[in-house]
Specification:
Elements (H helix, E strand, L loop, with lengths): L3 E2 L32 E4 L23 E4 L3 E5 L5 E5 L15 E6 L8 E4 L3 E5 L5 E5 L11 E6 L6 E6 L3 E6 L4 E5 L14 E6 L6 E8 L5 E7 L4 E6 L14 E4 L4 E10 L6 E6 L3 E6 L4 E5 L14 E6 L6 E6 L3 E6 L4 E5 L14 E6 L6 E6 L3 E6 L4 E5 L14 E6 L8 E4 L3 E5 L5 E5 L14 E6 L6 E6 L3 E6 L4 E5 L14 E6 L6 E6 L3 E6 L4 E5 L14 E6 L6 E6 L4 E6 L4 E6 L14 E3 L2 E9 L6 E6 L3 E6 L4 E5 L14 E6 L6 E6 L3 E6 L4 E5 L14 E6 L6 E7 L10 E6 L4 E7 L10 E9 L3
Antiparallel strand pairs: 1-32, 2-7, 3-4, 4-5, 5-6, 7-8, 8-9, 9-10, 11-12, 12-13, 13-14, 15-16, 16-17, 17-19, 18-19, 20-21, 21-22, 22-23, 24-25, 25-26, 26-27, 28-29, 29-30, 30-31, 32-33, 33-34, 34-35, 36-37, 37-38, 38-39, 40-41, 41-42, 42-43, 44-45, 45-46, 46-48, 47-48, 49-50, 50-51, 51-52, ...
């Protein structure tokens, strides 16, 4: 409910485990071991959005398809323009450069448009509308040469392809006639030609089968393998079989490959996957494969040391076994020891290893059964790569999560992310504030953005259309801070002028009228402010001289003027105190900290939220206990900051200890009980806080070590712990993020809005968690809550 700064610049890494990455020239020795590729068809089974794109920079229209490889990914816009990001050592980004990584999408050179694309170990391939296949990157490009290319080169042979799949040093494709062709290394018979002889150009897969799709993967025996679906839905695989990845019921044949002295089970020609299942989708990973039957059931087979078969165990299987959970899938993608699928309802589910957060659950805990990707996003397709995953939301936005050693998440940052991060970077913020059903933030360039509910123009865009992603506040003003209230917001510009927008029934915009505004309107009086705080129907600000002014509704004396008369223009808070900051709460009261560290509150005192030791008086406002002027908070504590919520307040003492007072129905005081108190009570746990934010029935704080903790009502996931469980003591939010500031919000003066919270990391990246009924998490979706911190979208 109050605006706050996010202090450090973007140079530090926000995500746990971030060791940084050199964006120029990473050596091959530093790369993760190569894996496989996934083919995706643009416009088939994947989301798209309308609009154009700029070829010289990141796509503006979103993505229709995305494919994750080994340390890099590629995506294509709805019109077929390709972009890649991540590891570019071998030229696999297709920009014409080698030894150059990119943490955001860069356009593939050549001006080609594509209908399908795939990312492999160190190269990528794509198919044009005419059926010509192009590849770029290291080595296995199918053009008759062993030389790599940092720009697309045509695959030899003049074949017309519908799809292509790149893997660990080989690739396969399906022609318009249904014939499968492969090229590259062939030590395990992965080209399917009946031999172990490699080929620099496409060679036909033996057997005369007609395929609809082929997917190539990495064999655990050091070679590779491939699986395909025929036109009648039968699955066939060929290549390495050391872990049973061919799905034929054995790991001892049917042939031996590599050498006489070191034989390994394989098949150099397609062999039928056991079980008699009819498949509509198939994906080859690293030593295992998964498929989706025509009934929507998912099956996997092969290696299973990390639970990547999704069966609830770590026992491997040489025949297809059902993925647990009874979910109905549209598609599935097998990666390196993990797999992900999209259900028929658009939910992304992942299972297997999770050491880099590649399951997208907000933690690094592995799962042997499908676990839902957090964030409430609805996906049209996903692609699992080498310890990271990318997907396209139904909105057309691309998201990636997991390992990020070379920038392969594509969000403009280094360090892994265990929750979906929007590709192309997203916004970074220096200030962020959560209100009732909406949130606002300020970027390093001083631009204000808001997202969520907009029924009264509280997003400041000039309209009343809500937005599930950040939208710029109109007017071109430069802000230093912003505060989101209930159906309105206020901010302070770089010149010190206060601006407000949204509903204005009680004069809470401070303009001298009660006419609302969907764009920023200047607060009257010509005062120069340093901070401002918006709440239920009033606002307060502190001027450069330390004087506090308030405006709007004044039913309980919350303007601090000595009366209960409302004011549509700033009115001076009485008492002559010099304040550092003032925070306005949802139960018609306010608190401020003076320059000497003393806390004062005024307004409603029904729950003892003034902190004076009593909930009786000291005055009466409409028959309710109140104070129309500042009264000192009891306890003799020296505070560095204070925050007001809905009927309670919290503050951080100069010692770093957090204290709360007021109503405590939900355990929101953090004392370990649900008993309210009219004087400051220490928050349990002995933590040292740098700041705390009081919301609606819950509160969150940031410790001096950068950890976020929340307590109180957790019914909407607003504690960020991965559950809906409430807690009367502080609980650490999941995700391991380095947080510098946090803001808790939700309903003001009643349960009109469910609770949510947002935080800013050390690099300025915003995460939100909790209720998302109006898109207030800013993730690009509206609907179910996020139980763990989820990245705010671009």
């Amino acid at each position: 409910m109050h605006a706050f700064p996010a202090p450090t610049p973007r140079s530090s890494l926000e995500r746990r485990g971030s060791a940084g990455c050199a964006m120029q020239g990473r050596s091959p020795a530093a790369r993760r071991r190569a894996r496989w590729g996934v083919v995706v068809l643009i416009g088939w089974g994947l989301g798209a959005c309308n609009g154009g794109e700029t070829l010289g920079g990141p796509p503006l229209a979103g993505f229709a398809a995305v494919a994750a490889g080994a340390g890099f990914a590629c995506g294509a816009t709805p019109s077929g323009v390709a972009y890649c990001w991540g590891d570019g050592w071998y030229g696999q980004l297709g920009t014409g450069a080698t030894q150059t990584n990119s943490t955001t999408p860069v356009p593939v050179a050549g001006g080609l448009t594509f209908t399908a694309l795939t990312a492999g170990s160190n190269f990528a391939c794509a198919v044009t509308p005419s059926g010509t296949a192009y590849c770029w990157g290291g080595g296995q490009l199918g053009n008759g040469s062993t030389a790599g290319s940092a720009t697309p080169v045509a695959v030899a042979g003049g074949l017309a392809f519908t799809t292509v799949s790149a893997g660990p040093f080989f690739a396969c494709g399906v022609t318009t006639s249904g014939a499968a062709y492969c090229w590259g290394g062939n030590g395990a018979g992965q080209l399917g030609t009946g031999t172990q002889t490699g080929s620099l150009t496409p060679v036909p897969v033996a057997g005369g089968l007609a395929f609809t799709t082929v997917s190539v993967g990495g064999g655990l025996g050091g070679g590779g393998f491939a699986c395909g679906i025929t036109t009648v839905g039968a699955a066939y695989c060929w290549g390495d079989n050391i872990a049973g990845e061919l799905g034929i019921g054995t790991t001892t044949g049917p042939q031996n490959c590599f050498s006489v002295s070191h034989p390994q089970a394989c098949s150099t020609t397609p062999v039928a996957v056991a079980g008699g299942l009819t498949f509509r989708a198939i994906s080859a990973g690293s030593g295992f494969a998964c498929g989706v039957t025509t009934s929507g059931a998912a099956y996997c087979w092969g290696a299973n040391p990390y639970g990547q078969l999704g069966t609830g165990t770590t026992t491997g299987s040489a025949t297809p076994v059902t993925v647990a959970g009874g979910l109905s899938f549209r598609a599935v993608s097998a990666g390196a020891s993990a797999a992900c699928g999209v259900t028929t309802s658009g939910v992304a589910e992942c299972w297997g290893v999770n050491s880099d957060g590649q399951l997208g659950t907000g933690s690094t805990t592995a799962s042997t059964t499908p676990a839902a990707v957090v964030g409430g996003l609805t996906f049209s397709g996903v692609s699992a790569g080498d310890a990271f995953v990318c997907g396209v939301a139904t909105s057309g936005s691309a998201y990636c999560w997991g390992a990020n050693t070379a920038g392969q998440i594509g969000d403009g940052f280094a360090g892994f992310d265990a929750t979906p991060a929007p590709v192309t970077g997203g916004h970074t913020f220096t200030a962020l504030s959560v209100g009732g059903g909406a949130a606002c933030g300020v970027t390093p360039s001083s631009t204000a953005y808001c997202w969520g509910m907009n029924s009264d123009g509280q997003l400041g865009t000039g309209t009343t259309a809500g937005s599930a992603t950040p939208v710029a506040v109109a007017g071109g003003l430069a802000f230093t801070t912003v505060s989101a209230g209930h159906a309105f917001a206020c901010g302070v510009t770089t010149s010190g002028t206060a601006q407000c927008w949204g509903v204005n029934t009680f004069g809470q915009l401070g303009t001298g009228t009660t006419t609302g505004s969907a764009t920023p309107a200047t607060v009257a009086g010509g005062l120069t402010f340093t901070t401002v705080s918006a709440s239920d129907a009033s606002a307060c600000g502190v001027t450069t001289s330390g004087a506090a002014y308030c405006w709007g509704a004044n039913f309980r004396g919350e303007l601090g003027t000595g009366t209960t008369n409302g004011s549509a223009t700033p009115a001076a808070v009485v008492g002559g105190l010099s304040f550092k900051a003032v925070s306005v709460g949802g139960q018609e009261f306010a608190c401020g900290v003076t320059t000497s560290g003393a806390a004062y509150c005024w307004g409603d005192n029904l729950y003892g939220e003034l902190g004076t030791g009593t909930s009786i008086g000291p005055q009466s406002c409409g028959g309710a206990a109140c104070s129309m002027m500042p009264v000192a908070v009891g306890g003799g504590l020296s505070f560095g900051s204070a925050s007001t919520g809905n009927g309670f307040a919290c503050g951080v003492a100069t010692s770093g200890a957090a204290y709360c007072w007021g109503v405590n129905v939900n355990g929101n005081l953090g004392t370990g009980t649900s008993t309210g108190t009219a004087t400051p009570a220490a928050v349990a746990g002995g933590l040292s806080f740098s700041e705390v934010s009081a919301g609606d029935g819950s509160a969150c704080g940031v410790t001096t070590s950068g950890a976020a903790y929340c307590w109180g009502n957790g019914s909407s996931g607003q504690l960020g712990t991965g559950t809906r469980t409430s807690s009367s003591t502080p609980l650490g939010t999941l995700g391991g993020l380095g947080i510098t500031a946090v803001s808790a919000g939700g309903g003001f003066a009643g349960p009109g809005f469910a609770g949510f919270a947002c935080g800013v990391t050390t690099s300025g990246v915003a995460y939100c968690w909790g209720a998302n009924t109006d898109g207030q998490l800013g993730t690009g979706s509206i609907g179910g809550p996020a139980l763990v911190p989820t990245r705010v979208a671009q």
